[in-house]
Amino acid sequence: MNGTVRRVRREPGRAMSRDVLSRQAPRPYRTLAYGTHRDQVVDLWPAPRDGAPLVLIVHGGFWRAEYDRRHIRPMANALAAAGYAVVAAEYRRTGTPGGGWPGTFDDIAAVADATAGLAARLGADPRRQVWAGHSAGGHLALWAASRHRLPQGSPWHAARPEAAVLSLAGCASPTLAALWDLDEGAARALLGGTPEGVPERYAAADPGWLLPTGVRVTLVHGTADEQIPVAMSRTFAARARRLGDPVALVELPGVEHFALIDPRSAAWPEVLAALAGLVE
Length: 280
Fold this sequence. Notes:
The protein has about 280 residues and is an alpha/beta fold. The chain is built from 8 helices and 9 strands. A 9-stranded mixed β-sheet has the order 1-9-8-7-6-4-5-3-2, sandwiched between helices. Helix 3 (about 135-145) links the parallel strand 6 (about 125-135) and strand 7 (about 165-170). The radius of gyration is 17 Å and the shape is globular. One of its GO terms (molecular function) is hydrolase activity. This is Alpha/beta hydrolase.
């Protein structure tokens, strides 16, 4: 599937899954702090068997404080039931002290750096990791896996990770998000200005400008997504392929934005299939 565009013929329907944002789900096995701020925590679900793959989930919400990790608990519990160890990351967001530039990126880098240790703690295989992000979380997962492409002097520079990336309706490019004015300036709020005003921040924060990475990536995006147009993933995939990166794009006809994190949706089997393909 690497380097391909796969359009799933079955049309799962356009029923909204937005209720997943407030749906009750079992609490995590444990919550650990990685910093002193209340949002610097991760929720953990242990591996159901030794050596299971680990999934790091980065939630979306256009990087804004009003959306937190609780809305991905249905997804996290479903992944644990499917045989994965799960880490659900919280991080400082715009509207929260320390959120935005650079705090959001500090937090995601810290979580990414901790995944190998968390895998060992949860009984998972640290060599079989997928960093999965939904919406703005898709951007952050892609960025975390691209940090080896940052300059050596960057505080976020790191070795290329032993992880693949699954971007679900991902806001892959804050540059495009700013130019398209998605969610009324969400990217500008994150980075403290426009691409023209603070170009150095966009250069450091946009995974599209850090290609090629050599990291395995699968992008899953619904064609009926009204929050982040499927053109976002198409543009990222096209640029990645031109530069020789192993990127796959799975387009789901008629699927909207929230279905990709809803285990009750008709699109969920496609998410599980994409995830399984990255840990084979």
